[in-house]
Amino acid sequence: MRIILFLLLAAALNLPAQEVPPPLTEYLGREIAQTMHWQGADWLMRRVREDEEAPTKMRKELNVKPGMTVCDMGCGNGFHTLPLAEMVGENGKVLAVDVQPEMIEMLKKRIAAKGLKNIVPINGLYHDPKLPPDSCDMILLVDVYHEFSHPVQMLASMRAALKPDGLLVLVEFRAEDESVPIKPAHKMSKAQIHKEMNANGFTLKREYDELPWQHLMFFGKGEAK
Ligand SMILES: C[S@@+](CC[C@H](N)C(=O)[O-])C[C@H]1O[C@@H](n2cnc3c(N)ncnc32)[C@H](O)[C@@H]1O
Predict the structure, then answer these.
(1) Using CA positions, which residue lies closest to atom 11 of ligand 1?
(2) What does 122-139 look like in DSSP terms, one character per residue?
(3) Which residues of the chain have pLDDT under 50?
(4) Fold annotation for 53-221
């Protein structure tokens, strides 16, 4: 199914199929989860999310400062994008990337309703987020990384898009914790996260272990592999 989707994508982009790297179903021993469909976007805005995931506490822990450029990678319909825009202020910018145009359209409606000027919506590709090089102070991925069908290409592009001291921030449901009521393919263990980040030139800088359901891990650029 994924192969067919990618051949269609290649055709739509007028690219020879061999130029779109094949999607993976497994990476370094981990099953890659299916992309969450845009028709389920209401779930991202559920009222109980604040109690379940403590997103306000998570965003505070990011230490985002006014004037920063922050990427909300896999932004969905913008649950985190709009609060991040407030945190970076009018001199900062939020680059909001998603592969599903329907998610980006929902985000645009929310931006227009609030009259915000500091969010740049980007229709990314599964293997290319279309981020400018050396542009981001932080790239935040909330419940997104485990869905990447092209983790190696995505990590290389995000590494190039980060400024030298920029941080890649992963928020992933804890695989070690059976009480977190999320399907196994949508969870990750710390050990697996380390394995995949280290293999792609990222090293852990900081972590925060006080969220109810998720790991919050900050990675900087380590040695290029
Ligand atoms: C579970 S949703 C999370 C949305 C948002 N981060 C949130 O916390 O509300 C995962 C999102 O990642 C997006 N996604 C999956 N693969 C992607 C990729 N390679 N590049 C950008 N977005 C991607 C999906 O389209 C989906 O909107």
Answers:
(1) 74
(2) EE-BTTB--PPTT-EEEE
(3) 1, 3, 7, 13-15
(4) Rossmann fold (3.40.50)
